[in-house]
TrEMBL record:
PANTHER family the UniProt entry points to: PSEUDOURIDYLATE SYNTHASE TRUB1 (PTHR13767:SF2), TRNA-PSEUDOURIDINE SYNTHASE (PTHR13767)
Pfam family, one: TruB_C_2
Protein name (Swiss-Prot/TrEMBL): tRNA pseudouridine synthase B
Any GO BP annotation: mRNA pseudouridine synthesis
Family that this chain belongs to: Belongs to the pseudouridine synthase TruB family. Type 1 subfamily.
Keywords: Isomerase, tRNA processing
The protein's role, per its UniProt record: Responsible for synthesis of pseudouridine from uracil-55 in the psi GC loop of transfer RNAs.
Source organism superkingdom: Bacteria
Amino acid sequence: MTDRLLGSGLIIVDKPAGMTSHDVISRLRRIFRTRRVGHAGTLDPMATGVLVVGIERGTRFLAHLVTETKTYRATIRLGASTTTDDAEGDITSRTDTTDVTDTLIDAAIAQLTGDIMQKPAAVSAIKIDGKRAHERVRDGETVDIPARPVTVHRFDVLDRRSVDGYIDLDVDVFCSSGTYIRSLARDLGNALGVGGHLTALRRTTVGPFDLTHARTLEELEDNPQLSLTLDQALAASFPILRVSGEEGHKLAMGQWLEPRGLKEIHAAVTPDGRAVALVKEKGKRLATVFVARPSTL
């Protein structure tokens, strides 16, 4: 029997610079000849790297995809602040960086590592009353987004160099979802008293997905294939719970099973390797959170 979910799953795109995440979605809709395309975790036009995209029923899975951590390679320029905290904005101030030593940089980075409160840039994609902050700024509104808790697990300097009186730092950042790297650049510059902004950004991991999974749009044009089927995506994103064929059939119908002592969401996988559903214990029931393979398909 033909698998009706054969074309459903995830595409891990290596987003090029100069395109919005929506631009990528529009291109993929044409490549895969479907309107059912969506993405998780917006990337700014300047940024490149891992963009997780759902195709067909994979779009519904995106709402359940927990990507708690992300990793970035970035370049931070110390000595200038901009209106957007990155190179696409106008420079608002320049400050001499002669007295900025490696010791001072390391100390400032240490203060921005761990559990911190971070104020997102006004031009971020955060929605305020249903409208993205950057759209409000573009429409002339003054936007002030409150600081929020984030975790920076790793903030390493890979290289430092002087460029036209500025200090450029190539950094590697491993952080919680919701962390803004441009805000780290801004806050690092402010802590050093010289201002700072982001000049380059590449996302290298999103949760369990990294650049080894990723394909360029040109590669997808030539060979439009999923990076992971829906079965593979569920199994890669959650711990696996092995269930029998009969149990899988019940889950496909939205029915519940007896509890197994699970502490978190699991992907229920049948003996034939199909991920039927995401399940979670609720009281005395092992219930479905998301049915990947409903019995109606």
